[in-house]
């Protein structure tokens, strides 16, 4: 079993804290860059924080979004659902395949069937 984190009581603000927190501007920067699709390493460099801090705020944001979704989305009766897909390349991209002489190395066309 892991030990419980130490908690401190701030008398001036009158709240219990799990440790030092980042300024709001830094937290907004981290979450904005995560939403834009930046890597955790680039975010940690831009915000001058640890990659572990970026990971922690990603997990906290995910938990907050899950809680909000669970509270606000109720009794949805859907007749049609559209699922968008993100395609990724397995093997090689088409321009790389064109360079190869072996036509069997070309991946099948990717798209909707």
Outline the secondary-structure elements.
Blueprint (H helix, E strand, L loop, with lengths): L7 E3 L4 E3 L6 H13 L3 H8 L3 H22 L21 H6 L14
Antiparallel strand pairs: 1-2
Give a short summary of the structure.
It contains four helices and two strands, in the order ββαααα. The chain has 113 residues and is mainly alpha-helical.
Task: Describe the protein in words.
The model has no long low-confidence stretch (mean pLDDT about 75). The protein has a domain at about 10-70: Arc Repressor Mutant, subunit A, CATH 1.10.10. It has helices spanning about 25-35, 40-45, 50-70, 95-100, and strands at about 10, 15. It is built from four helices and two strands. Helix 1 (about 25-35) runs antiparallel to helix 2, helix 1 crosses helix 3 (about 50-70) and helix 2 packs across helix 3 (about 50-70). The termini are far apart. A two-stranded antiparallel sheet has the order 1-2. It has about 110 residues and is mainly alpha-helical. Helix content is about 45%, strand content about 5%. The radius of gyration is 23 Å and the shape is flat.
- Rg over C-alpha atoms, rounded to the nearest angstrom: 23 Å
Question: Could you spell the SSE succession in H and E letters?
Answer: EEHHHH
Number of helical regions: 4
The strands making up the biggest β-sheet line up spatially as 1-2
Overall average pLDDT? 75
Largest sheet: 2 strands, antiparallel
Determine the structural class based on helices, strands and strand pairing.
mainly alpha
Query: How far is it from the N-terminal to the C-terminal residue, by CA?
Result: 50 Å
* CATH architectural group of the domain at 8-72: Orthogonal Bundle
What is the CATH topology of the domain at 8-72? Arc Repressor Mutant, subunit A
| CATH class division of the domain at 8-72 | Mainly Alpha
Number of DSSP strand runs:
2
In terms of per-residue confidence, which ranges show pLDDT below 50 for 5 or more consecutive residues?
none
User: Approximately what portion of the residues adopt beta-strand conformation?
Assistant: 5-15%
- Using the alpha-carbon principal axes, give the shape: flat
* Amount of helix: 40-55%
């Amino acid at each position: 079993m892991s030990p419980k984190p130490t908690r401190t009581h701030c008398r001036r603000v009158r709240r219990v804290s799990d440790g030092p927190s980042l300024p709001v501007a830094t937290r907004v920067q981290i979450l904005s860059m995560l939403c834009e699709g930046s890597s955790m390493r680039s975010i940690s460099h831009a915000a001058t924080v640890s990659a572990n801090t970026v990971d922690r705020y990603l997990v906290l944001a995910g938990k907050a979004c899950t809680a909000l979704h669970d509270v606000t989305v109720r009794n949805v009766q859907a007749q049609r659902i559209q699922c968008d897909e993100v395609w990724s390349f397995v093997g090689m991209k088409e321009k790389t395949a064109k360079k190869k002489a072996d036509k069997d190395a070309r991946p099948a066309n990717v798209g909707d069937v």
